Amino acid sequence: MKTIYISAAMTGRSDDDIAADIAQARWLLEQRRYPMRIITPLEIKEMVDLKYKQYAESGTEYGYEEYLCQDIYQIIKECDAVCFCRGWQQSRGCRLEMAAAKIFEKAIIYCK
């Protein structure tokens, strides 16, 4: 089973817009009809929020860097491919994910 990370621009966008892009990419990937595990940035965000909950409660800040580090980790360690949603070129995080995907020779898929 292949694992695919869906890369979507997040900064400055509503959760609904992000979720819509991810849903469209997921649907397009599922049309390929082969077994796959899909990882999304929203799932990574939930995982990071749980991991750093104790920091937030103590007043210590965390954010963009922690989310992005986890995204890149997932691409490098867990994924066979990365699917880029529309508008990825305008996102610093997505461009970094593209660089990681290329460096670690992951398959790259573009969702329009």
In short:
The protein has 112 residues and is an alpha/beta fold. The protein contains five helices and four strands.
Describe the SSE topology.
Layout: E1 2-7, H1 15-30, E2 36-39, H2 41-51, H3 53-57, H4 64-77, E3 81-84, H5 92-103, E4 107-110
Parallel strand pairs: 1-2, 1-3, 3-4
Helix pairs in contact: 2-4, 4-5
Question: How would you portray this structure in words?
Answer:
With 112 residues, the protein is of the alpha/beta class. It has a single domain, classed as 3-Layer(aba) Sandwich (Rossmann fold), CATH 3.40.50. It has 5 helices and 4 strands. The protein has helices at 15-30, 41-51, 53-57, 64-77, 92-103; strands at 2-7, 36-39, 81-84, 107-110. A 4-stranded parallel β-sheet has the order 2-1-3-4, with helices on both faces. Helix 4 (64-77) runs parallel beside helix 5 (92-103). The radius of gyration is 14 Å and the shape is globular.
Apparent shape: globular
Structural class: alpha/beta
CATH architectural arrangement: 3-Layer(aba) Sandwich
Instruction: Identify low-pLDDT runs.
Output: none
Main sheet specs:
4 strands, parallel
